[in-house]
Specification:
Strand content: under 5%
Largest sheet: none
Structural class: mainly alpha
CATH topology of the largest domain: Serine Threonine Protein Phosphatase 5, Tetratricopeptide repeat
Shape: globular
Number of helices: 18
CATH superfamily of the largest domain: Tetratricopeptide repeat domain
Helix content: over 70%
CATH architecture of the largest domain: Alpha Horseshoe
Number of strands: 0
CATH class of the largest domain: Mainly Alpha
Radius of gyration: 26 Å
Distance between the termini: 76 Å
Length: 341
């Protein structure tokens, strides 16, 4: 009897046909999730599709599109680079997608290089029209940068520098009234120097005029949604007010931007540290080269805090002590282990 049961079970087992999902099966579910804007699910399905069908370049290309949609531009370009390496340069649409990602990151020279490569390929690519529009935008931005450089050939550039350094001194000493007075003069005398507006907004906030500061930055951001310093200030203002969700909207923008100017690099590094993205902020701090920037109070303070919270207390204390020598008031703030905003 026992033998009979086992034999029947064995025969039944041999009749079972296992279901082995194909790459296409996973890909279809990934597309459906993407269309419903369920991006985490889309990433999981598409990664499964790539594992099941590693010979299919369409799947990683679609994964890169999902990464782009959520603002993970570096991750998207990493995937596209692997497609070109694994499947050859005939997958020309990768060049446009990479150009688009670099443009979002603010790396305009890289964006221009890849969009030119895409447009140089024979035949009409899927993104031909979009690539032409992107190229026009990049050319226009390049012209604007050249014009800006010409405009900044001020006869009174030395006077601007004096104003700037004096205002920064008062800001770092937390002398808000004196900083506000100087920054108001700077905005009148040098309206093209937009940094003064952002420093003015920050000083306003720290001096107690919080709503006015937020409104000012919102108005600047409405005119230029890509303004890095507006995202920085609004992120800091919302963090200080405990409005975490609103702060994260701006922090998300900053995590995917790698600016060229040293002041902007420092501002992003500081803000990431304030928000608790310590490892990312350390990478940004390490990339700073300008001597004036790395001698700022916020550099010493927030770099040391980030080091401490990533398990490097000795380096953190060394950095903090360096800052205290230059900015004695920093010693009154406890140390890199303190919870600070």
């Amino acid at each position: 009897m026992t033998t009979s049961v086992k034999g029947t079970a064995a025969r039944q087992d041999t009749n079972i046909i296992p279901f082995l999902p194909s790459g296409k099966f996973y890909f279809t579910h990934g597309i459906q999730a993407f269309q419903k804007r369920r991006f985490n699910a889309a990433v999981k399905w598409l990664k499964k599709a790539i594992e099941a069908s590693p010979e299919e370049p369409l799947y990683p290309c679609q994964l890169s599109v999902v990464y782009t949609e959520v603002g993970s531009y570096h991750a998207a370009n990493q995937v596209l680079t692997e497609v070109l390496a694994n499947f050859g340069r005939e997958y020309v649409d990768c060049y446009y997608l990479m150009a688009n990602n670099y443009a979002h990151l603010g790396l305009l020279s890289d964006a221009k290089k890849y969009v030119d490569t895409y447009l140089e390929q024979p035949g009409d690519g899927e993104f031909e029209e979009a690539a032409e529009q992107l190229k026009e935008m990049l050319d226009s931005l390049e012209e604007e940068e050249e014009e800006d450089e010409d405009e900044w050939a001020f006869e009174d550039e030395d006077e601007l520098l004096i104003y700037q350094e004096t205002a920064f001194y008062h800001l770092e000493q937390e002398e808000w009234d004196q900083a506000l007075q100087l920054l108001e003069e700077m905005m009148d005398m040098f309206p093209e120097f937009t940094m003064a507006q952002h420093k003015y907004a920050f000083a306003l906030y720290m001096n107690g005029s919080q709503e006015e500061a937020v409104d000012l930055e919102r108005s600047i951001l409405a005119e230029d949604p890509s303004d890095i310093h507006s995202h920085v200030n609004l992120a800091v203002f919302y963090l200080k007010n405990g409005r975490q969700e609103e702060a994260m909207h701006h922090i998300h923008q900053l995590r995917n931007v790698f600016p060229m100017h040293e002041q902007q690099k420092l501002a992003v590094a500081e803000t990431l540290a304030r928000a608790g993205f310590y490892q990312e902020s350390i990478e940004r701090f390490r990339a700073l080269k300008d001597k004036q920037v790395v001698r700022r109070r916020v550099y010493y303070k927030w770099y040391s805090i980030a080091l401490y919270h990533t398990g490097q207390p000795a380096k953190a204390l060394q950095m903090w002590e360096k800052g205290c020598k230059q900015f004695p008031k920093l010693a009154e703030e406890g140390g890199p282990w303190s919870n600070q905003l």
